[in-house]
Amino acid sequence: MRANHDLSRVSVSFDESNLVPNAGLLPAAVLAQRIDLAGLIDGRLHLAKHGANSGAKALTVIGSMLAGGDSIDDVAVLRAGAARSLFDGTRAPSTVGSWLRAHKWSNVRQLDAISRIAGAHPKIRFIVDHMNLFVEDKGETVARAVDALLPLAQHPNIAIKVSALPAHSSQPYPFRDMHRHIERVVTSFGAERTLWGTDLTRKACSYREAITMFTEELPFLQPAQLEQIMGDSATRWIGW
Question: What average pLDDT score do residues 114-139 get?
Fold first, then answer.
């Protein structure tokens, strides 16, 4: 049987406001409500941007996936008919897209890839810039990024550039909230694989402060370590 008209010109809409187009979502919605899934997510997920109402946004994604969605645009299925009554505060595709892109799981995925490549090519030397931090990372987001970074220390061909850190600080010079992260990197990778840098393109401080933050404000660094971090390590690592 063939249609006698061009199906590419046909559009379909679900506009019955009293019907749920995917009735199988009801048990999942009831379970999410009983365990307060949205509240659990709000209490545990903290994003640097677009983090408000993460629970509602997560339920929008979950509901869309259960309904067969496989793209951001597919969350619109939860806004058809009476489907929006199953999940409180269903969000639009554009809102969900911004929320998903704010997650930092990509950091971890990048580090996974670096680990695999470094392990497969032990004679190649790698440098991870800015401790693998994203531009907007601050506070506990930095701490979690460093947690993910430290396992790379198992690869002797990976060095870390401790650069642009003032831009990630929530405090004025000498940016004391960054000091513990520097100490953790030095402890794990050693001064011989820790490379100082500035990234003055973002210029959260003067060039002099970028230097003295290390040379005058980090008492846990021994003179020999400081000499390595401030230049000797980079010279040796790059082969200058």
Answer: 89
